[in-house]
Amino acid sequence: MNEPAKNDMTTDLALLVVLAVLWGASYTFIKIGVETIPPVTFIAARTLIAGGILFAILRWRGLAMPGDAASWRRFAFQACLNSVIPFTLIAAAERSVDAGLATILNATSPIFTFLLTALITRHEPVTVRKLIGVGAGIAGICLIIGTQALGGLGHELWAQLAIVAATICYAGAAIFGRGFKGLDPMLPAAGSMLCGAVILVPLSLVFDQPWTLAPSTASILALLGLSVFSTALAFVIYFRLIHTLGSVGTTSQAYLRVPIGVGIGALFLGESLGSMAWLGMGFVVAGVAAMTISVRKPAFAR
């Protein structure tokens, strides 16, 4: 591997870790936020703030949003897959599900992305390395969760199924997001967030009447942290990695997100970690490495 390619790989892996941290923290932000802010209003504000920040940065950079209807239809569809539906489902679910368990359930996104890719789109090769990466990631997740954590899986079943449904949406979004190749990564990020706000804000006004709410300071700060860091910044990184690592490689950060998200939940919310967490983290890191390296070496595909 030549030096520029090696540097690109290092940058992509570093961004993958940053994305895992930003999205790992999002579950704790959501858990705190929905304590006093209804889910639809919370996510409407999240998309509106993040979209506004991204749009302002685009204008500062001298970039303009596309003016054609076709691009905005694609942004709206991406918004449904990547924000409107999954964000709202997860926010609603976290009113009864721990942030750590939400992180773990949502970490199955690479599996669904891999299956959708292999069975439907077939735009990326199914390699032995990727299969090993999937297996290592699943093994790591199982070790991190532990049997005691799984003991409560039957409770709050609908909330947990909602998180799984959100995960499937993320898998579809990762594949559909490839269609924005050639655009500056901030354009689809801003466009999808703004479209999400257009969809969710009216629903918030009708159903939650946000002017009647009295959110806590903690919930407001969680909303700001979620919007600025775990949404605006994270989506810029996400769309870049979709084009460099591919859909399966990008969603593989979900494996790394598990120990990060569970750890943040334990630190700030007092949630407990499984006894095999450290061993599981080793499998998780190995799974991420296997899946991302395979994307950079398509010549080994069979």
Structure description:
- The protein is mainly alpha-helical.
- The chain is about 80% helix and about 0% strand.
- The protein has helices spanning about 5-35, 40-60, 70-95, 100-105, 110-120, 130-150, 155-175, 185-205, 215-245, 245-250, 255-270, 275-295.
- It is globular, with a radius of gyration of 19 Å.
- It starts with a helix and ends in a 6-residue tail after the last helix.
- Mean pLDDT is about 85; it is low at about 295-300.
Q: Structural class of the secondary elements?
A: mainly alpha
**What fraction, in percent, of the residue positions are helical?**
over 70%
Q: Measured on Cα atoms, how large is the radius of gyration?
A: 19 Å
Largest beta sheet, briefly? none
**H/E element sequence:** HHHHHHHHHHHH
Q: Strand tally, please?
A: 0
Features:
mainly alpha, globular, 302 residues
Tell me the layout of helices and strands.
Layout: H1 3-33, H2 39-61, H3 69-93, H4 99-106, H5 109-121, H6 128-150, H7 157-176, H8 186-207, H9 217-244, H10 246-251, H11 253-269, H12 277-296
Brief account:
This protein is mostly helical. It has helices spanning 3-33, 39-61, 69-93, 99-106, 109-121, 128-150, 157-176, 186-207, 217-244, 246-251, 253-269, 277-296.
